[in-house]
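Quick sanity check, Alginate lyase 2 domain-containing protein:
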Amino acid sequence: MPNCQHKVMKVLSSIMASSSSHPALHGGEPSSRMELVLLLVSMVLALSCSTSASAIDGRNLTAGFVQVNLTESNFKVQRPYDMPENQRYSYDNATGVRTFLVYAGDKPFNNVTTTNPRTEVRLAGHDYSSGVWQFEGYGYVPTGTSGASVMQIHNEQGAAHATVLMLHVYNGALRYYSGEVVEDRIYDRWFRLNVVHDVGASTVAVYVDGRRKFGKSVVPSASYYFKFGVYMQHHDVSPLMESRWRNVTVYTTNSTASATCRRSWTSRWLLLLAIAFYWSVE
């Protein structure tokens, strides 16, 4: 229960106790109106608590977030430097599906880096260094793809660590890097992926189909950005790696909206408190 709600409930309870000890205030009978007010407050509190619970259990993961405006110019494609983009990446305007392909023998995305081959989108124009940020998208990995990262939170250029999170696919399982299984049996189905990064708390959380599947504290860096697609890793690599994505969206917290919400709740509690006090002494 939020602190402001807890304090109001304590004050209301004190008023009820005080009014009960002064029968002259209400003709020697219990204040039924006070009990009604307390019942109303309890119902409001229950509603607010259930809203919070729905966000926690994944039914409303984006509640309290504001959607970031993304245009096609924000979707920067990285693919093997010697290949035309349309041979490794496609976007279907009719379905909104982005398809990423990379072969184990492909070259890197430029002729300077020594990193492994990839075909990925780097979400440009929305690097972040504070707040809570959320990636949401519907992904699909066909049978046979293995040894590839399909989503990552990347640190700024030149950081001590390249990433704070990578989700790899190995033989049908989605894993945190090459370690803990996040979701088994990922092949041949559309899944909803939500990744929440709390910069201030230095934590990441991964939700699959609305259910929390993984959470971890991470090493902080100066700034971050999201990537998704296929990026070859270092073991259990298939000759061809593929992923498909649609409805990719980015959200962040909005301090102005949160402050407005807090002011709204405070006004409601003060009004209820005033009514309760008036009824208790009438």
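Posting the structure with no commentary besides this: The radius of gyration is 26 Å.
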